[in-house]
Amino acid sequence: MSPKICLNLLATVLLFSATACSTPPFSSTAQQVAEGGQQYVSTLKKVNALALSHSLEFTADLLPNLPRTQATLEDHTQAMRERAQTVSLVNTYLDLQAQYFAQLQAFAKGDQSAATQKNVKALADALGAVPNLPGLATPIKNSVASLAGHVATAAHNREVALVLQRDASVVGQALLFNQQVLEEQMQWITFREQLAREVAYRDEVEKPYLADKKLGETWKKAWMNSIKPPPTIALLEEARQASLRMQQAWLDVLRGQGSMNQLSGVFTELQASIQTLQTRQANP
């Protein structure tokens, strides 16, 4: 090989190397939050299913202890039907979030085809239409409007950075909505749980005790349950805290910082807690 050909080949290799090094790597942080976002959404759907199931259970237990009128039955039945519809609407919105995070993950990994870009944009637009639920304040856009300004463009591939800038506030609003739903779930269940526990205490603890009859394991269990904090409310608080951390994770990914590893562990533990509680409720 002639010296001239060798020099030309070397120049070509150096040029290719320089070009490759000048292209920023795809954002591993964006990939992590996209994957974690899907796990987060899956967890929230399980929390919603558990909360609805628990609401139905203690409403069914409570009804026989209320005045048996047609109005009582209709009021509680309608309330639970509306509750089921609310959970369905929230889950549909959560499905949109899961789809968005899945497309963002593909995009951040390098699939920046026209189809993927179109899907990400369409899903972001759909997320902008936050469900209008009774008794739930619409997320305040002003509180997340500045998120786009946190995007550290140097920390992301150029195309990823542009998508994050465009969608930062929309996703932030969706995550804030999720937190509000969890807080509303807690208020709903706490109020009804307290009423159900008062009835259970009266019938299963107080009446047998004052009747001066022999008290066995059933009474002991009922008395202990009347003192322990309700496990469903504790689980909802765990979910609320995880939701707050997810909002911080979204801010971190915009900045090109942080890791989803720890938060992923939180979701795994929360799902395990849900499974344990469901098993306990199925086998009292």
Short structural summary:
It is built from eight helices and no strands. The protein is an all-alpha fold.
What does this structure look like?
The chain has 8 helices and no strands. It is 77% helix and 0% strand. It is an all-alpha fold and 284 residues long.
* C-alpha Rg (nearest Å): 26 Å
Mean pLDDT: 83
Approximately what portion of the residues adopt beta-strand conformation?
under 5%
Distance between the termini: 83 Å
Assembly classification: single chain
The general outline is: elongated
Low-pLDDT stretches are 2-26
The major beta sheet can be summarized as: none
Q: How many strands?
A: 0
**Helix amount:** over 70%
Helices and strands: which structural class? mainly alpha
- Total DSSP helices: 8
Query: What's the helix-strand series?
Result: HHHHHHHH
